[in-house]
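hiii, so i know i said id send this last week but things got crazy w the move. better late than never?? heres the sequnce for the chain we talked about at the cafe, plus the structure i predicted for it. fair warning i was half asleep when i ran it
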Amino acid sequence: MADSLSLPQPSAGGTPTVLVVGGGTSGNALTVLLRRAGIAVDLVEASPDWKAAAGSGITLQGNALRVLREVGVLPGIEQHGYAADGVAILAPDGTVLHAHDELRTGGADLPAHIGMQRPVLQQLLIDQVLASGADVRLGTTATAFQQDGEGVDVTFSDGTGRRYDLVVGADGLGSATREMIGITDKPKPTGMGIWRAPGPRPAGVRRTEMIYGGRCFIAGYCPTGEDTVYAYLVERARDRAALDPDTYADEMRALAEGYGGPWEEIRTAFTDPKAVNYTWFDRHLVEGPWHRGRVVLVGDAAHACPPTLAQGAAMSLEDVQVLAELLTSRDDWDDRLLTDYHGRRLPRVRMVVDASVQLGQWLLDGVRDADVPGLIGRTMNALKELP
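okay and structure toks below
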């Protein structure tokens, strides 16, 4: 592979072509930003319906909202989600022990966070992608890359092929793109598992509230709309093969027993096992370059962390913002550009991954004098700075 991977930008009379592999949050956001700059984008998504989104809810911190505003979906997020600035820590019986305002990592003009249902966010992004004029192919994957110094020849699962100036792997934690380009780093479990499900929003719940202790390490919920919350229970990881998906609702409802306050209403909603999601916490960080030639990774394909800081989506969206900025502001798409992208993102992402894992490890180890507020405060203060 050549060290110099230059090609003309639109301002020089050329029309660069980009393939985005993966139509989740980061892939959709990148597609919109690149199309807005006049770059031709094809997006392929393995799911045939595109609308499926794992999990029941998502907490979008201010630095995630900052990027989503640029993508053009903030008005819809504000309309359909639930904005909050506060977090409260409760005792297992529901008594409020402590409440505080969160840092506004996206700036003073954005909420500290907005909770919303994942399928709603996905649909908002889908609408923007379709409006952008990108060529979208569902039920399709990239199966082979053949590179030279000028581009990437891509073979698709439907037997077709096309040449691109750049390929972006936004295909998540189990990224096939990462494996295809020879990056061997893989996610590693941290020892925790999380149960997630939607529930009714009890009257008076207007912020994220969490309980530390009881049957679980964490029992929490975040409002996702006027009538809904995203509820979660964090415990020591179980053998997933031994869990019958048909019992998921029963398992989550049993874990929630013993928690008082709003939990008494929320847990009554855990009746449909298909609405309950169980996953492990993983640590993932590709320390070395995130690209090989003209194929580069973004989001969970390059890094992921436990949701203890609620920064997973934010880190992925910041990747997209930085990569789009570089691609749309430089005359040459060369190895230096992709190296600079990695250099700007790695320290910040490492900080978040390490802090997120540490918060969980303290719980696993039963450390009672851990400096949780200090670690969270230092990390969130750092994230107020632009990536």
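btw The CA atoms of residues 238 and 322 lie 37 Å apart. thought thatd interest u
miss u guys!!
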